[in-house]
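Hi all, long-time lurker, first post. I run a small reading group and we've been trying to get comfortable going from sequence to structure in the token notation. Rather than ask abstract questions, I figured I'd post a concrete chain and ask someone more experienced to write out its structure so we can walk through it together at our next meeting. Sequence below, copied exactly:
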Amino acid sequence: MFRLAALFLLGCAAFSAFAMSQGESLNILMDPGKDEIILNPYTASDSNSIVIMQNLYDGLFEYDDKTSEAVPALAESFAVSDDGLVWTFTLRNARFSDGTPITSETFAESWNYMKDGPLASNIAFVAMKANGDLDLETPDSRTLKIRLRHPVPYLPSLLCQPCLAAIKDTSSYSGAYTLLSQGPDKISLRRNPYYYGTVETPFVNILLGDNLGQMLLDGTAQWSMAPVENAADYMVLSRLYGTTFFYFSAKEGAYADENIRKALISAIPWDIIRSIQGSLQESTSLVPDSGLEANISEEIIRLLELGGYPYGEKYLPVIRMALTRGSQNAVAAEFIASLWSRILGLTVILDTVPVTLFSSVPEENPYDFCTITWIADYFDPMAFLQMFRSDSSYNLANYSNADFDAAIEQAERAPDEETRKALLLQAEQILLDSGVVIPMSTAFATNFVRKDLISGWETNPLDIHPFRKISVVSD
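-- Answer (accepted) --
Happy to help. Here is the structure in token form:
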């Protein structure tokens, strides 16, 4: 049985990396808030954990640091059958950080382990054998053959995700770095001695906290993912393939009813909400630039009655809303809560909590209405839409709609790209019309980078910056 080794290596060489000279260490500031950083690729879905794991685990492909397109990593070469259903990969000679060879069996064992876990939907594109295993063949140690359920033209981008990387256990690493130590204030990485590629900087320290900006200003840290005051000269702003949105997540009760959702949505002047929240670019579609708009009905009284809550006769139950600290939707959420209270007499509880409390395990989400910024894992509408499928293992909104599912399934089996994209637009419209998702703005990434101290840091649409490509400028 595939078993995970201990995830956290606490206290191992606790400060050795930071003791290295600045010419040898890349120091990064990160503010995870109250969210726990979990470096387990089988379970973690928050952005901070994934940023770090992308440097600990390599897959068949990786993201290009300039374009975010998928480029070969552990895959030396690959071939695709004429019908698009069979992909055959030849692996490069590579080893884990403990010296163990990375083989085709590594992927087969790891992916079969993952298919029963919380991120199983990320492997749903692989066909199944009669015995319940994934349809993977390993004719030799360097050949992996994958049979798909349906053609997946964006498969290389899917294979960049840490959960689909080469994983033996969580104390051996296939990426450019290994975990040296992890504590509440700092995570230290060092170069994987068996890594096949070039690593510009041998040591990386991720310094955790919400009041570390001075370290960037004085040059102790060279890059901050967290906001830094008085650092406008170092701010780098980039548009992402991502969307910030509100969503209903109730599985049952009033707020799981489409009519009630639409009634609540109709009470809100979303054009004003989008303009006051201070976003850089408003959005009315879930998939960036798809051109669709949410269908906002104005028949509030009729909708409430259809949902079983006649206006003035029966009051809606308390609704619980969740925000994360620093959310760009904070002002909008407070305005929405106030309007619902005044217009509908609704009692609203607005909590500021770690994003993991409502997003890590969606089916256990205690909140009815949440907001999140979703940055796609790959360049395709499916990166936004697949999680709303009824059978998704990561169904963020606990949403179920037969018409939506059918449109997604038809898109998967579409004979050509034009038909596929038309069906995905249809699926997105169904989702918006159901009142479960309210898009707010296109996502932007804000980083603070001392480009006078480092080189190799590039902007890109997925905000991915491989540590190994960043070099510290010598004095």
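A couple of things your group might point at:
The chain has two domains: 25-222+450-472, 239-444.
Residues 1-23 have pLDDT under 50 and may be disordered.
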